């Protein structure tokens, strides 16, 4: 008998509409492009303002803090107002923030521009996460979340090459400014497209449970901490944030300082690394839909194993001196990270009820940044100043990937019951018992 893998990608898009996916992906790409421009051009920006690694990493890292803090009020709004308006307003602020970064005359102004960039992206997780979960049926949702997740590596692939190319064409000490200004143009066009094409599908539509009363962020947090799958994933992603936000900037500094890669060469390299990551995430999203229907525990196991692989390859490979070997390890580690992260959003959607999805998607980045992302990146910056980028990357990744991977693996025993509870169904045991055997009495 043929196994039922649920609706295909086209059927899923047709059911929920093409506009959400087609706008969510490029808008998130634009957000990522700005971050990648900052990472790629880090040495040039540092030279322009005369600041060290710790100061620059703190300023750039505050983008994540603003994104995290802004996500909570965005989640509150996302269950009360039309989400289309949140997308359009945030995209407009993001456009202006890129212009501000390009025109900044000192670190204070650049810091403010980076903070506004983070606030402009704060809507992304709670709004797009809940829009996708509310628009598309559960059987094909993993593929849509995978497409949405590929926006990050697409931005990581296009962003460094774009920023490096613009800087190379502009030339001079202020070449980095033109990268930010050039990015503002397509961002503005997407803002107009969202205002015209995007529609809010309503809350809980594919689950046939609309109309539930909204839940406040604090109450949602208390309720979601009782969902063991969500709690372990939050803790795991939180610790992993130390690695996820340390590696890009420190790798760029390493290639620039030790190997002499200029902005264009660093951009081209980071772009090429992301191509296999995108392919792995698309394949991972398809496999998620297939596996989750019958063996949801397997999806969490794969994610946890991929995190451990990311840590082992990065922590060991960063000490390889030949540039080709160093880059090859970075590529393999990035693929592992992509395979792990592509499962996070569909898992969150599966174990949360429709009325708390926006809050759940907003809570997740809080753990990422407050537990590891910002403070960890600042610590790594000081470590880099004292001992170099290799030591900073090795120390950050070895600890965070080990702890994060173990926490993800702890979640696998709870995912089946949590998903059933979120769907309003009786829990199903992870290993259903076989048929009853009647004893003969002899």
TrEMBL record:
Q: What is its main location?
A: membrane
Q: Where is this region: Disordered?
A: 420-442
Report the membrane topology from the UniProt record.
Multi-pass membrane protein
User: Keywords on this record?
Assistant: Cell membrane, Membrane, Transmembrane, Transmembrane helix
Tell me the ranges covered by the Major facilitator superfamily (MFS) profile domain, including all copies. Answer: 20-416
Compartment annotation: Cell membrane
Pro residues bias (residue ranges): 426-435
Q: Where are the transmembrane segments?
A: 12-34, 54-79, 86-105, 111-133, 145-172, 178-198, 229-247, 267-288, 300-319, 325-349, 361-383, 389-409
The protein's matches in SUPFAM superfamilies, at most eight in alphabetical order, are given as: MFS general substrate transporter
Query: Sorted alphabetically, which PANTHER family does this protein's record hold?
Result: CHLORAMPHENICOL EFFLUX PUMP RV0191 (PTHR43124:SF3), PURINE EFFLUX PUMP PBUE (PTHR43124)
Q: What is this protein called?
A: MFS transporter
Task: Give the organism the record lists.
Answer: Streptomyces yaizuensis
């Amino acid at each position: 008998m043929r196994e039922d893998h649920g609706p295909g990608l086209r059927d899923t898009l047709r059911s929920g509409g093409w506009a959400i996916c087609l706008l969510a992906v490029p808008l998130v790409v634009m957000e990522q492009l700005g971050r990648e421009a900052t990472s790629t051009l880090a040495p040039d920006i540092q030279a322009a303002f005369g600041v060290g690694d710790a100061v620059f990493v703190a300023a750039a890292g505050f983008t994540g803090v603003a994104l995290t803090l802004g996500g909570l009020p965005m989640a509150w709004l996302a269950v009360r107002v039309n989400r289309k308006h949140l997308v359009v307003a945030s995209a407009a602020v993001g456009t202006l923030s890129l212009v501000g970064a390009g025109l900044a005359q000192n670190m204070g102004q650049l810091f403010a521009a980076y903070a506004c960039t983070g606030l402009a992206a704060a809507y992304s997780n709670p709004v797009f996460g809940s829009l996708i979960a509310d628009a598309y049926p559960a059987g094909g949702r993993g593929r849509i979340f995978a497409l949405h997740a590929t926006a990050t590596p697409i931005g990581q692939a296009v962003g460094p090459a774009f920023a490096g190319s613009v800087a190379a064409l502009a030339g001079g000490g202020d070449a980095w400014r033109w990268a930010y200004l050039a990015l503002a143009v397509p961002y503005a066009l997407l803002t107009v497209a969202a205002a015209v094409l995007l529609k809010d599908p309503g809350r809980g539509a594919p689950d046939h449970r609309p109309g539930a009363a909204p839940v406040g962020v604090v109450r949602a947090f208390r309720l979601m901490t009782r969902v063991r799958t969500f709690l372990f994933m939050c803790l795991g992603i939180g610790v992993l944030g130390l690695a996820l936000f340390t590696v890009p900037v420190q790798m760029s500094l390493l290639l620039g300082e030790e190997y002499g890669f200029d902005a264009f060469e660093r951009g081209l390299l980071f772009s090429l690394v992301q191509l296999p990551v995108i392919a792995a995430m698309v394949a991972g999203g398809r496999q998620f839909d297939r596996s989750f229907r019958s063996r949801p525990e397997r999806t969490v196991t794969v994610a946890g194993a991929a995190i451990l692989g990311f840590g082992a390859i990065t922590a060991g490979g960063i000490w390889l001196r030949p540039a080709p070997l160093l880059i090859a390890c970075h590529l393999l580690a990035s693929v592992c990270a992509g395979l792990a992260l592509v499962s996070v959003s569909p898992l969150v959607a599966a174990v949360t009820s429709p009325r708390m999805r926006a809050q759940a998607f907003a809570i997740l980045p809080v753990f990422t940044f407050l537990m590891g992302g910002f403070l960890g990146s600042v610590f790594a910056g000081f470590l880099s100043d004292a001992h170099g980028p290799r030591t900073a990357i090795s120390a950050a990744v070895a600890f965070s990937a080990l702890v994060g991977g173990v926490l993800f693996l702890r979640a696998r025993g709870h995912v089946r019951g949590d998903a059933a509870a979120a769907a309003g169904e009786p829990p199903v045991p992870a290993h259903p018992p076989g048929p009853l055997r009647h004893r003969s009495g002899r």
